[in-house]
Amino acid sequence: MRVLFVTAEAVPFAKVGGLADVAGALPVALANQGVDVRVILPKYASVDDRKYSLQRAEDLGEVDVPVDASSRRATFSWTYYPNTAVKVYFVGNDHYFGREGIYTDPGTGDGYKDNGERFIFFMKAVMHAARLLDGELDLIHCHDHQTGLIPAYLKVTYSADRVLSRVASLFTIHNLAYQGLFSPSLMPATGFGLEYFSPLSPFEFWGRINFMKVGIHYADVLNTVSPRYAQEIQMGEEYGFGLQGVLQDRKEDLYGILNGIDDSVWNPETDPLIPYRYSATDLSGKSKNKEALLRRCGFSPDGDGPVIGLISRLTDQKGFDLLEQIVDPLFSLDVRVVVLGTGQKKYQDLLQAIQGKYRLKFRVFLAFDDPLAHLIEAGSDLFLMPSRFEPCGLNQLYSLKYGTVPIVRSTGGLADTVQDLGSEPERATGFKFEAYEPEALLAAVRRALRAYQDRSTWQQLMRRGMQQDFSWAASARQYLELYRKTIRKRRNERST
Ligand code: ADP
User: The pTM is what?
Assistant: First the structure.
């Protein structure tokens, strides 16, 4: 089976969020299952030719991609994923991708004004590459709105193309909150006529073009990154962000597959980024990591209370408004909190204000810092994810692996991956709360602190979490099954 995996981010080349982790690991896990998978993404400024030993992709040449009135040239290069035989291709164009940021300008924090055009260019260049790759493709696996037009190109633009008309498409939704909404003035650039923009048509969404909606409409099969989230996004506006109806129309073809975690990066037994390595059978290194974390935070080494970690983009999704409302009662408890994050200014200000008031108990690092993320996972006792919604969530999985007991809101992938001590004591790995209310969060923290006092219950919780299997191999097997289903569906439709 030959698959082209199209993504706007992939570790180690370019990362904004969880999509990059998925795209960095899933292709390798699929290759281990025997899939001939190639990855393609934009060649951002972070993709250094020398560092990654990039070579020109002679088989793909170069192509002038029409975007609006003019064309721009796409170049193609490739390398291997580090230490694997998985090939990754890059679409190059300095005008669109030779910038410091991926979606946003790091200087202003604003999204690039030409993001619509940038990703139309990318998708059209991908279609060119898909025709020329050696060996005929069976399936294109698209991820999020930056790839949303590709299923439409396959079904409409290339419907008579000898090579591409038989290629199936799977569209994976990693986060429905980001839909790729652009001005209708970009319709000519997409290559689709205005008839595709009439009300209720696949492209139109409240007067704007919606790339996510296009992907949902045209893909042969869809999935999200957890079973619960696949259900939630059909339920209403709260999780569906206006696309709940379109998703309900496709419910027969909508699946949920949990993300895995990359064991070679997130494993306390081998992690080179933490000062002390440890395992479920020997937890002694964990308390030493806690001491290192306390030092890093400038906290006193004394005291028995737990440290709660939180690593997150600072956005409305992640529940900082709940934290804001429990600050005083939270710090009346014997607990210290460390937060690592980048994002919206209002949350930066909030976190700095909390730090100003509770300097001995609260520390915030406003940075994107991978080594510090590892230290927080290894050195914290508890991990907090009070998300409003969470398609899958990776940090609770890392936390489980690192014996850092998660406190999560019961939504999406958080609901699917954490078992609550109160309701499922035999299988428990953490603490969950249901209502998106500050009191519910505070009650969960209090329950966690009570459990923390009982060392044997606590060690059991930690060990059970550490022994969970969230390997990519398990998820890759499910994707392989879904690929087969998608290809069968495409072939059946073409033969009828
Ligand atoms: P999302 O994709 O919504 O951002 P996930 O939990 O699925 O959330 O994945 C976030 C990923 O980004 C994790 O690997 C997390 O460790 C990482 N991350 C987020 N913020 C930071 C940060 N400030 N520094 C280092 N890593 C971060």
Answer: 0.93
